[in-house]
Automatic annotation (TrEMBL), chain A:
Pfam families: CO_deh_flav_C (PF03450), FAD_binding_5 (PF00941). Keywords: FAD, Flavoprotein. The keyword Cell wall biogenesis/degradation does not apply. It comes from Jiella flava. Residues 1-218 form the FAD-binding PCMH-type domain. One of its GO terms (molecular function) is oxidoreductase activity. InterPro entries: CO_DH_flav_C, CO_DH_flav_C_dom_sf, Diverse_Substr_Oxidored, FAD-bd_PCMH, FAD-bd_PCMH-like_sf, FAD-bd_PCMH_sub1, FAD-bd_PCMH_sub2, Mopterin_DH_FAD-bd. This is Xanthine dehydrogenase family protein subunit M. The keyword Transferase does not apply.
Automatic annotation (TrEMBL), chain B:
Residues 38-143 form the Aldehyde oxidase/xanthine dehydrogenase a/b hammerhead domain. It comes from Jiella flava. It comes from the Bacteria. InterPro entries: Ald_Oxase/Xan_DH_a/b (IPR000674), Ald_Oxase/Xan_DH_a/b_sf (IPR036856), Ald_Oxase/xanthine_DH-like (IPR016208), AldOxase/xan_DH_MoCoBD1 (IPR008274), AldOxase/xan_DH_MoCoBD2 (IPR046867), AldOxase/xan_DH_Mopterin-bd_sf (IPR037165). GO terms for molecular function: iron ion binding; oxidoreductase activity. This is Xanthine dehydrogenase family protein molybdopterin-binding subunit. Pfam families: Ald_Xan_dh_C (PF01315), MoCoBD_1 (PF02738), MoCoBD_2 (PF20256). Gene3D superfamilies: Aldehyde oxidase/xanthine dehydrogenase, a/b hammerhead, Aldehyde oxidase/xanthine dehydrogenase, molybdopterin binding domain.
Length: 323, 743
């Protein structure tokens, strides 16, 4: 770990001007600093900022402060009742201790678990642009099958963000100059292309202040996480689904997937193929075909393609049953 | 006063059998439990708090195989608070092998990825860690051998392994060729890590030419030699302390590279030095269990009677290492067959050295053989329990000697009854609960028993309090507790009248903890010392020792009850006892036995496997403490879940990097993976094994349990996976197409 300067931000307006790396729960950043995967010269501690509330918004949704802990988020009664998929996704992640420390903003920005990203003596375009990609041709069982490039095949590991993507959540930020903006998650995250080191739209000094959830979406909420052990493991594939039935047909479907792409993955074509249809294995199969049309394995992660298909079909079957 | 007992004859009835004090065998709480949960049991790194210590941080060589050309330490030395950078050929490249007098040193080379090459010593841990990145290691990379699959057949037979590389009887090849039924399958187990909770850590302090080291070590007698040789001093100048150990699982049988590095750093700086390996160091710079490729061939009669058995293992190790994973160890005696062949070949490799990890041999070998037995039972259409009953040898089929005790079939029958084995789905893949496919599986367990030389002192104070002293270690298994119980039972003292001191080389030499021999060996030395003390009591009272009953601090003889204080007459009485293995080890085959039963649920959609219940029935001679023994078995069952479903150390075949070198990515079972565990220990006394009539138990529990789980997966799905761990990617192709019953 390299020596670094430490300051504490005392108000939101000031945080971005302190020109350093924000630290919230530290559960990801500190691990990476110990390994020198991340080497910030200065840390700006944002944990004293007043961003720990979940408030109702004018449009009937909720605003989650960037510093709301994962534990508090999952336990909030409004989240549990109206955004069940989010509560379930958060609880499927990490461990109790980690969730107590981890924050909403930090969770969105957590970095990949690719083993080569973590090992500084190995090539990695994300950590060290231009050095190559250790995972291609290496141990890539946990890597992505969609949205990748020849420069990087890493996944985004968050569970929380997958549910947020299904819920059309938006990220609220404040730039260093004090201006604010609101970004939908698909505009917030970036695919690797030839700059896998750029993972999102944030500019230097831009602080996530909160996440906005639109008004609740009714329907069956499901979060299914497939992993190598029953707890404390990242998703190999996860599916967040909110599906509403009307009579015998699917009236609305929102689907996002984790563990398969460099960002929480959502494909509206898949949803279109479902809406207005009667639930059946054939319909689900067609949806999976659309989802996985461009999926490509790297060898060890080939199994994720059938796994994603099977999991998606099972989640859809479950979410539409009894209709 | 020193008394020795050589185990040449079976032991008769003892005071432990009489159980007058009533404490032996009882599931009493841990002797050091309160200290541990209240933070008062110092682990290696926690010594010398408040003293003027310096801190070390290891610099590693970030390449698979190379010759080091230069190590530039100038920039690191120029950093504030940095005291020294230790370099040189003496740096150990990994842990030492358990029984070798010294660890392997680097000698200017990098033998495996992220091997230690230097140590930075600074005023603070942070300063040392920060300066470590400034040490520049220049090297010439060389070609390395990072996997064994492509080099099968190139292995050599090592004569310095944990058992003979080859054991043969009759003519296996001929018998197999002529067998009515031939079974020939190959199984693979991956590399594993011990993954003990406490990282390897050492604190070293010099006083003139005398060195004191606190380190997390299992076998102090050999460890002290390894330290002395590593540092270049006489053994007599070194004192090693290891009072509490946060798990070893074999990885602390030999010293870690930290012990010598800390001592060298302390010598160079003139300050005591503390060094804890990082989790990444532990995974990459200590030791691992080698992956195995095991070919199992079994010849049988048409009726299913085993006539010959062959078990050939290929496994790696690094240059200069004679150790091999002895996967065939239990195949030597577990099943019958006139013609037998067990071989082990070591394939040279440039990955971290391979050494003992919990139950070396059985843990991997029985993942193969117990799966093979299940395959055969299926093939013959015979229940796996009945199949084992049909194939129970009467005596050791390799050495032709009797078993000292063997309750394998009792364990299997008892287990089958308790588990409800009769409800096992008759056809694989036939039982379904919603999305889950349900299956039952079972496996035998066996673990070779050994008794080692060990000694202990008992000092009885004038007030009648006993202190047991031995350089034995307690690696979290309960050694303190059982030694207290043995002394209390033998001497007729309430438990709280016995203190136990362990983990210090200034105490009598001991076997240490390893190979599940600790309780039997160290326990027997306490037994022998206690017998000596009783004899002295009898002499002082003018009675025969046999006629003397001891209870609650009183000697009872000829209808008189005399408090110990009266016998001791104001003086402390000190005796030392020593146990040595003897003829009974050759005259009999000694092993612990058990049976594992598993119920699993395999998700028909995803292939995720969840273990629903595990039952182990074991027989390991006298159980000294029901609670600690049972806990050992729980540990084995949990490891079995890991071996069946999760654990695998992944080595990148291109460069030798151990990719998953932390506990986030090297998966061991977590609480949610572990169902209700049941353990039943049968009554047994093995009078050939030791004066305690007990046998090793810790490692018995891991033997076979992974195979029971895998066999249950077969019963659930019909898929036979011969490459561990059985993860979803391997199961998916075998699962039903139509995914959801819910649809
Ligand atoms: C062993 C382990 C297992 C885990 N398992 C899972 C899992 O199964 N599923 C899962 O989803 N997660 C898992 N996690 C990850 C965990 O969820 C994240 O580490 C955590 O959410 C990060 O939050 P934090 O507040 O600690 O972030 P920090 O570590 O403090 O910060 C992470 C990043 O976000 C930046 N940042 C933080 N807050 C802001 C802000 N307000 N504005 C701008 N930038 C900001 C920081 O600069 C840093 O780059 C696991 C972590 C560990 C260590
Ligand atoms: S997959 Fe991405 S993160 Fe992993 S090594 Fe390649 S470039 Fe780096």
């Amino acid at each position: 770990m390299r020596p670094f300067e430490y300051t504490r931000a005392s108000d939101v307006a000031e945080a971005g001007r302190l020109t350093g790396r924000f630290i919230a729960g530290g559960t990801n950043l500190l691990d990476l600093m110990k390994l020198e995967v991340e080497t910030p010269a200065k840390l700006v501690d944002i944990t004293r900022l007043p961003l720990r509330d979940i408030e109702a918004t004018d449009d009937g949704g909720l605003r989650i402060g960037a510093l709301v802990s994962n534990s508090d988020l999952a336990a909030d009664s409004r989240i549990r009742n109206d955004y069940e998929v989010l509560s379930r996704a958060v609880l499927a992640g990490a461990s109790g201790q980690l969730r107590n420390k981890a924050t909403t903003g930090g969770n969105l920005l957590q970095r990949t678990r690719c083993g080569y990203f973590y090992e500084t003596s190995q090539p990695c375009n994300k950590r060290d642009p231009g050095s190559g990609c250790g995972a291609i041709g290496g141990f890539n069982r946990i890597h992505a099958i969609l949205g990748v490039s020849e420069h990087c095949i890493a996944t985004h590991p968050s569970d929380m963000a997958v549910a947020m993507r299904a819920l059309d959540a938006k990220v609220e930020t404040q730039k260093a100059d004090g201006s604010t903006r609101i970004l939908a998650l698909d505009d917030f995250y970036r695919l690797p292309g030839d700059t896998p080191d750029v993972e999102n739209a944030l500019e230097a000094g831009e602080l996530i202040t909160g996440v906005r959830l639109p008004k609740p979406v009714s329907g069956s909420h499901r979060y299914r996480k497939v992993r190598d052990r029953a707890s404390y493991a990242f998703a190999l594939i996860s599916v967040a689904a909110v599906v509403r039935m009307d009579g015998g047909t699917i009236a609305d479907a929102r689907l996002a997937l984790g563990g398969m792409a460099p960002m929480p993955w959502r494909d509206t074509a898949v949803e279109k193929a479902l809406i207005g249809q009667e639930p059946s294995m054939a319909t689900f199969e067609k949806a999976a075909d659309i989802l996985l049309a461009d999926a490509k394995g790297q060898g060890e992660n080939d199994f994720k393609i059938p796994l994603a298909r099977r999991t998606l079909k099972a989640v859809l079957a479950d979410a539409t049953k009894g209709a | 006063m020193m008394t020795k007992h050589v185990m040449n004859e079976p032991i008769g009835e003892t005071r432990l059998d009489r159980n007058t004090q009533g404490v032996i065998g009882k599931g009493v709480d841990r002797y050091e439990g309160k200290l541990k949960v209240s933070g008062k049991a110092p682990y290696a790194y926690e010594h010398l708090i408040g003293e003027d210590v310096a801190y070390g941080f290891v610099v590693v060589g970030p390449v698979g195989r190379a010759r080091v050309t230069t190590i530039d330490v100038e920039r690191a030395l120029a950093e504030p608070r940095v005291l020294a950078v230790v370099t040189g050929d003496a740096i150990m490249r990994s842990s030492a092998q358990p029984m070798s007098p010294a660890g392997q040193t680097m000698d200017g080379e990098i033998f495996h990825y992220n091997q230690p090459v230097a140590l930075v010593v600074a005023e603070t841990f942070e300063a040392a860690r920060s300066a470590a990145r400034l040490v520049k290691v220049e090297y010439e990379a060389q070609d390395g051998r990072y996997e064994i699959e492509s080099r099968r057949g190139s292995g050599r037979a090592s004569d310095t392994g944990p058992m003979a590389a080859d054991t043969e009887r009759g003519d296996f090849e001929k018998a197999f060729a002529e067998a009515e039924v031939q079974f020939d399958q190959t199984y693979r187990t991956p590399s594993y890590h011990a993954a003990a909770m406490e990282p390897h850590a050492s604190v070293a302090k010099w006083d003139g030419d005398r060195l004191t080291v606190w380190s997390s070590c299992q076998l102090l007698e050999t460890n002290i030699q390894q330290i002395a040789n590593g540092v270049g001093v006489e053994v007599s100048k070194v004192r090693l302390l290891s009072p509490y150990i946060g798990g070893g699982f074999g990885s602390k049988l030999g010293i870690g590279p930290d012990a010598v590095l800390a001592a060298l750093g302390a010598r160079e700086t003139g300050r005591p030095v503390k060094l804890a390996l990082t989790r990444q160091n532990v995974f990459q710079a200590t030791s691992r269990r080698g992956e195995t490729i095991q070919r199992v061939r079994i010849g049988l009669t048409k009726a299913g009677q085993i006539t010959c058995i062959g078990h050939e293992t290929e496994t790696p190790n690094s240059e200069g290492e004679g150790f091999f994973e002895p996967s065939g160890i239990s195949t030597n005696f577990l099943y019958p067959g006139k013609d037998r062949l067990v071989t082990h070949r070591v394939i040279a490799s440039d990955v971290l050295m391979c050494s003992a990890v919990r139950a070396p041999g059985e843990a991997t070998g029985m993942l193969a053989t117990e799966c093979a037995l299940d395959e055969l039972a299926e093939q013959f259409g015979i229940d796996p329990v009945a199949f084992r009953r049909m194939n129970e040898p009467e005596k050791d089929p390799q050495e032709d000697v009797p078993f000292s005790s063997r309750k394998l079939l009792d364990c299997i029958e008892e287990g089958a009854k308790r588990f409800g084995w009769a409800d096992r789905p008759a056809t694989p893949g036939s039982r379904r609960e919603g999305e889950w496919l349900i299956g039952y599986g079972m496996a035998s367990a066996s673990r070779a028993n050994s008794l080692m030389e060990s000694s202990a002192e008992i000092a009885m104070s004038p007030e009648g309090r006993a202190t047991v002293k031995t350089a034995m270690t307690d690696i979290g298994t309960g050694t303190y507790t059982i030694l207290q119980q043995i002394a209390a039972e033998m001497l007729g003292l309430p438990l709280d009248h016995v203190d136990v001191l362990l983990g210090d080389t200034s105490l009598p030499e001991s076997s240490g903890s390893g190979g599940s021999w600790g309780a039997n060996s160290a326990g027997s030395s306490v037994y022998v010392a206690a017998e000596a003390m009783i004899k002295e009591f009898a002499k002082r009272l003018g009675v025969e020792a046999d006629g003397l009953t001891l209870k609650d601090g009183h000697a009872i003889a000829h209808n008189r009850q005399i408090p110990f204080s009266e016998i001791l007459k104001g003086e402390t009485l000190t005796v030392t006892g020593k146990i040595e293995p003897g003829d009974t080890a050759d005259k009999t085959n000694q092993a612990s036995y058990g049976a594992h039963f598993a119920e699993v649920a395999v998700n028909a959609t995803t292939g995720e496997t969840r273990v629903r219940r595990l039952l182990m029935v074991g027989a390991a001679g006298r159980i000294l403490n029901e609670k600690t023994a049972t806990s050992q078995c729980y540990g084995g069952q949990i490891w079995g879940i890991g071996y069946a479903l999760e654990e695998a150390l992944v080595v990148d075949p291109r460069n030798g990097l151990i990719v998953n070198h932390d506990l986030a990515e090297y998966h061991v079972p977590v609480q949610a993976d572990v169902p209700k565990l049941d353990v039943v220990l049968l009554e047994e006394r093995d009078r050939y094994a030791s004066p305690l009539a007990g046998k090793g138990i810790g490692e018995l529990a891991i033997a076979g349990v992974g195979a029971a789980i895998n066999n249950a997966i077969f019963n659930a799905t019909g898929a036979r996976i011969r490459c561990y761990p059985v993860t979803m990617d391997k199961l998916l192709p075998h699962l039903p197409d139509e995914v959801s019953a819910a649809a």
